[in-house]
Amino acid sequence: MDFHTEFKPLTVQPQEIEEKSFEMITEELGEHPFTAEQYPVVQRVIHASADFELGRSLVFHPRAIEAGIAAIRAGKIVVADVQMVQVGISKPRIEQFGGDVRVYISDKDVMEEAKRLNTTRAIISIRKAIKEADGAIYAIGNAPTALLELIRLVKEGIAKPGLIVGVPVGFVSAAESKDELAKLDIPFITNIGRKGGSPVAVAAVNALSIMAARKE
Amino acid sequence: MDFHTEFKPLTVQPQEIEEKSFEMITEELGEHPFTAEQYPVVQRVIHASADFELGRSLVFHPRAIEAGIAAIRAGKIVVADVQMVQVGISKPRIEQFGGDVRVYISDKDVMEEAKRLNTTRAIISIRKAIKEADGAIYAIGNAPTALLELIRLVKEGIAKPGLIVGVPVGFVSAAESKDELAKLDIPFITNIGRKGGSPVAVAAVNALSIMAARKE
């Protein structure tokens, strides 16, 4: 292919940009309440959002990191609530352990069932996911109704996720859904307040898969 | 398909959640410096981020909104810097005017050329895009190098975008690339500072396409 003209060698490569960014984050963040195991998730969330307030708002269940790493290493599925989360998650590190990154919200049967029950596709996609993805990591960045449905199914003993990364963003139900998640005694990563979103869910899962690929 | 059990009718539907959120945003934002035409973009960015500071940091070229609407109505391509932006943009409203939403960063020829020139895929993807997408809307939420390359090609008179939505997030080069964009006298939407990201780029383009589909 005939690409455009002038060759300008880069002084900074993407890998270097990331390393420099991570150093800046550690320096600017200063003291924080997170453990050494949790910190890579916090750091990557701040990297993805440039928002220290958002990073500091993260809340971890005590077993969250070890459970997330274990699920990835066991080849469990990562269930994304929306396609933006699915495409953002780095697949090779999930697939190398036999896992996969899936999204159900635009499946034909999910759309039909949501219409029939006059409910959200997000809710029905969670009901489908728990049938197909035992012990999955749920990465929910957008739909509070998906997170609330997953919490309900956990409480009823129907869903047994490996880890819930529940960080929906928004003004209606998002903060409330995360408060509910934080009450559960199962592995979760969430945050306090309205902020969150696809890049936060993606950053958390990618941080975990890097740890899964590295650690012994 | 046999979905799970209990039927719980929703009290709030997604459309109602969005309307209620938009009301809350307008109320909490209060006075602001944006025009009536710019405001739907600001509102949708805040809706996607739950971040009023980010919303207030938006900067519009005076012709940005009319140029964006005109480009969509003329069936111009929307070029996304990364796949997360591509999948987040609502396609039916772009396609109804003959347009399309494309991303080049993972194209085989782009990857090969980036490797050969020891530069970023983001830069090469912009060089490919300007050949294929005359008058396009560029939606850049992640890669400062993509935005800097596009600015360079505009200055050299090689690229003639319809609109640049340049809102990369990050600690290295992101804020600087947006400062450069804001100096151009061509239609742009950007923001001041490190914050930004895929959902911001997506929100801006979706707000424009809603206006394009509605307005006369």
Description:
Two copies of one chain form a homodimer. Chain A is an alpha/beta fold and 216 residues long. Chain A has a single domain (59-214), classed as Cobalamin biosynthesis CobH/CbiC, precorrin-8X methylmutase (Rossmann fold). Chain A has helices at residues 14-29, 39-49, 52-56, 64-73, 83-88, 91-95, 108-117, 121-132, 144-155, 174-181, 198-214; strands spanning 58-60, 78-80, 101-103, 137-140, 163-166, 188-191. In chain A, strands 1-6-5-4-2-3 form a six-stranded mixed beta sheet, sandwiched between helices. In chain A, helix 9 (144-155) links the parallel strand 4 (137-140) and strand 5 (163-166). Chain A is globular and about 50 Å long. The N and C termini of chain A lie far apart (44 Å). Mean pLDDT of chain A is 93; it is low at 1-7. The interface between A and B is large, with 54 and 54 residues. Chains A, B: This is Precorrin-8X methylmutase.
Question: What's the short story on this structure?
Answer:
In chain A, helix 10 (174-181) links the parallel strand 5 (163-166) and strand 6.
